[in-house]
Amino acid sequence: MFLKRFFFHFKNKNTMKRISNLAKSEIEDLIRIIGYKFNNPNLLEMALKHKSFDAGEGFDYLKTNERLEFLGDSVLGMVISEYLYKKFPEAHEGELAQKKSIIVSGLNLCIAARSINLGSFLIISDSEELSGGRDKDSLLEDSFEALIGAIFLDGGINTAKRFVEKFVISQLDNFITTDIYRNYKSELMEYVQSKGFPAPSYIIVDEEGPEHNKKFTARVFIGGKGYELGSGKSRKKAEKESAKKTLLKIESNDIKF
């Protein structure tokens, strides 16, 4: 029992020292980067504290960033929804939802988090540190949302909105037009239906490789006619590649309807 108490005392002392050092030498850097100084610094600390962090006996997991992540996710969604509603007055609900899902995707939130070097400010456990947690996508995504939640609680919706505008909305053109975000299957379906054809169908025409490393080949059919082949490590990726190749040929007038 003595050794256990000594261990926790020693661990508490070190972890509190880490928080103290973070507050003194690095918090000002983060404040400068994000352009917002917290009225309640405890909210910022909470936003940075991952659930892996363990300060020993009596540690309160409610003071980690999970609840702020939940709140920040909703604030982010609301701000992006309002922006898209005003930006695209002619877009239907489905199109707006698609754009929103692209913008708030984990990949984009990780890009935003890395743009402010958020990983270097996180309060994480030693084991998480050793496993590369500061650059782990899931931690960055969650912590970025938690930061939004903390800013919302501390400064209100307009302050949170300015933060999202600065670090997310300013990058929207890149997010929406980047090739990896294009939904080729949806685009192809919308195009062929506008020409009076039914929705495309896909058939897996080939499947090869061992179970753990399969390669699928798909062909898209439009109006009963087969078009470009596409390959991938899953049926979904093969179909997407088939749709992409077909759509690009349509765009270059190599395929005409």
Shape: elongated
How would you name the CATH homologous superfamily of the largest domain? Ribonuclease III domain
Structural class: mainly alpha
The CATH architecture category of the largest domain equals: Orthogonal Bundle
- Beta strands, count: 3
Instruction: Please estimate the helix content.
Output: 55-70%
| Major β-sheet profile | 3 strands, antiparallel
Rg on CA atoms, Å: 24 Å
The tally of helices reads 12
> What is the C-level CATH assignment of the largest domain?
Mainly Alpha
Query: How do the strands line up in the largest sheet?
Result: 1-2-3
Q: Count structural domains.
A: 2
* Low-confidence regions: 1-21
Instruction: Assess the beta-strand content as a share of residues.
Output: 5-15%
Can you walk me through this structure?
With 257 residues, this protein is mainly alpha-helical. It has 2 domains: 145 residues, Ribonuclease iii, N-terminal Endonuclease Domain, Chain A; 69 residues, Double Stranded RNA Binding Domain, CATH 3.30.160.20. The chain has 12 helices and 3 strands, in the order αααααααααααβββα. A 3-stranded antiparallel sheet has the order 1-2-3. Helix 11 crosses helix 12.
